[in-house]
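[audit] Reproducing an earlier prediction to check determinism. Same input, same settings, fresh worker. If the tokens differ from the archived copy the diff job will pick it up downstream; this log only records the rerun itself.
[audit] input (149 residues):
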Amino acid sequence: MRIQKAVALFFAVLLLGAMGMAQLPAAPRAEFDDAAAADVMSHLRDGLEAHSQHLFLGNFDREQMKDFDSFSDQIEAYFTRYESFRIVYHIVRTVEQDGKGYILAEATVESTPRGGGRASRREGQLRLTLAPVGKTWKIVDVNPRGFFF
């Protein structure tokens, strides 16, 4: 009998605790502004210029990005083909709308092939769509998709 009361008390406390947790406010999400956009672009550049596929892809939300696995494979091939990268960008516009962040940037990427040879250069507009993930923003779409490869 004593064990039954203890078990009942345990489950009552557990249930009350779960109900109380359900009423806690959600963690505040990061505001998307020019500083948040600059952070994302800076981290993207850092991963590319450090030739770190892990750091570069860490800026993307693998759960929300359509065809992330295919994109990741293409980035892996890009990092294998080139030994160094340099990126210069200028953020033209940032917008937050319907819970998403958008970055429009003018970008130039220079890629030096492994084993030497002439560097390739790509210039153009880069459009990034971001979603809040906790207190940070992650890229969920990049357009044009093949800008980096």
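[audit] rerun output stored. Observation attached for the diff report: The first strand starts at residue 82 and ends at 97.
[audit] end
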